[in-house]
Amino acid sequence: MTLPFFVYGTLRPGEVNHDLFLRGRIRSAEPGRLVGAVLYEGPGYPYAVEEPGDGEVSGDLVTAPPEGYAELLAELDRLEEYVPGDPRSLYERVERKVVRETDGAAVRAWVYVAAPAVAARLRARGRPIAGGDWRARG
Predict the structure, then answer these.
(1) How far apart are CA 95 and CA 18, in angstroms?
(2) How far, in Å, CA of 112 to CA of 55, rounded?
(3) Separation of alpha carbons 124 and 114, rounded Å
(4) At a CB cut-off of 8 Å and minimum separation 6, what does 18 contact?
(5) Model pTM?
(6) What is the tens place of the pLDDT at every residue in 56-71?
(7) What pLDDT, in 10s, does the model give residues 91-112?
(8) Phi and psi (nearest 5°) for 10?
(9) Domains of the chain
(10) How far is it, in rounded angstroms, from Cα 124 to Cα 138?
(11) Rounded to whole angstroms, how far apart are CA atoms 138 and 135?
């Protein structure tokens, strides 16, 4: 399934991992919001933790062309230390609806959210990022 990716930290345009992994390999990047999530500070990168309620995470929907999609998906899984079924994964890649800022449409996208063990630690003693925008953290 070739879904766009919702990126909210170092993969956003202008950030270090965007340049390393996405520059020249995507068709578009447009602002979006993941509703029902809280953004937490991580060790140099953020974690989105799914929470019922009004929380939102700001980011960008990035679309990759079909010819490079599988390779990019595998590279992003490695970057995010996501291995399906591995309890040591830092993130899980999940399909979620993301609101596109340009027109308010809900778009299905891949989102890397904190894996269950990481999410539990963050909920217990993590530091939420006010406003859900990693770029605006203080």
Answers:
(1) 21
(2) 16
(3) 13
(4) 7, 10, 11, 12
(5) 0.95
(6) 999 999 999 999 999 9
(7) 999 999 999 999 999 999 999 9
(8) -70, -10
(9) 5-125 (3.10.490.10)
(10) 21
(11) 9
